[in-house]
Amino acid sequence: MTSYILRRLIAIIPVLLGISVVVFLIMHLIPGDPVLVMLGEKASPQRAEELRRELGLYDPLYIQYGRFLARAVQGDLGRSIRTQEKVTREIAVRFPATLELTICALLLAVTAGVLLGVIAAVRQYSVWDNLSMVLAVAGVSMPVFWLGLMLIFLFGVALGWLPLSGRLSVDVHLTSITGLHLLDAILTRNSTAFWDALAHLVLPSVALGAIQMAIIARMTRSSMLEVIRQDYIRTARSKGLAERVVIYKHALKNALIPVVTVVGLTVGRLLGGAVLTETIFSWPGLGKFAVDAIYSRDYPQVQGVVLLIATGFVLVNLLVDVIYVFLDPRIRYQ
User: Fold this and answer.
1) What sign results for the dihedral spanned by CA atoms 52, 54, 59, 62?
2) Cα 133–116–160 angle (5° rounding)?
3) d(Cα 136, Cα 129) in Å, to the nearest integer?
4) How far is Cα 224 from Cα 211, in angstroms, rounded to an integer?
């Protein structure tokens, strides 16, 4: 297992190199001039020329990419063209917000998705089955931006139950330790900040996790239906075991193997979906940061965010492969 993990970690390097090349080329080939974004349309041609030379934008693309790569392997993603701040520092400031939102959306998607899938499979063709699948189809069919806007209108504007945007109310103060507001509120025993941060998380988490919840529910139902028809499940029932034990101890564990694969892919989709969700809810995370960077053609910022998300996606898939071994001891990696 250790050698397998090491091989997978080494295999990440060419994947990240390929991603960095693609993102670098796309950002440099699309129309637009970052210097004019920095200086404004009324900037003098002479000053714009000087700044382009300072930033090395006249160098061939392979030299610019080599310069970026040499810094990246040392943990330096360069400085933002727009703010002149270190990109690693800007990402570190915003990463906890995206991580907290992704974790909450993932917990929601997995918990609700597995529960709906199990109920639908155990009570096949019942009202609960039909209701669960209607929710799943509705979740898959609704675009993130549309669902986000509808949630804002219904629960934020019409009913006024939940906040519309941001991570904390203006009048709520919280001492930042980890950057994860819920965790920081627990560590500092600030119950006011905890409930306020939780209220701000509800709508973006639902908007972000709804589609993945629906996919997991359908996958769980299909997998459970296949497992509960196996001979060993009939044997377990014939031994007089309680139905709850048969379903949750014997059937669910085996049914979760394909679901774990979907969950691994879900993390990547959540990180990608965060771009839209964070923009709609003005969530100060990496998604909104990436959108702002793309609008201003800030190459270092975009490259840094994409590399971070790609690394996280590959590592999560490696973790999924490791979890297979614990769910099914027959699986061995050589």
Assistant:
1) negative
2) 90
3) 11
4) 20
Q: How many angstroms separate the Cα of 179 from the Cα of each of 8, 18, 95, 197, 282?
A: 30, 31, 8, 12, 17
DSSP secondary structure string, 265-332? HHHHHHHHHHHHHHHHTT--SHHHHHHHHHHTT-HHHHHHHHHHHHHHHHHHHHHHHHHHHHH-TT--
Measured distance CA(261)–CA(266) in Å, rounded: 9
Residue matched to tokens 């090491």: 6
At 160, list the tokens: 């006024």
Encode pLDDT of 197-242 as tens digits. Answer: 999 999 999 988 888 888 888 888 888 888 888 888 888 888 888 8
pTM: 0.80
Per the document, the length of the chain is 334
**Integer CA distances (angstroms), 48 to 59, 200, 225, in order:** 15, 42, 65
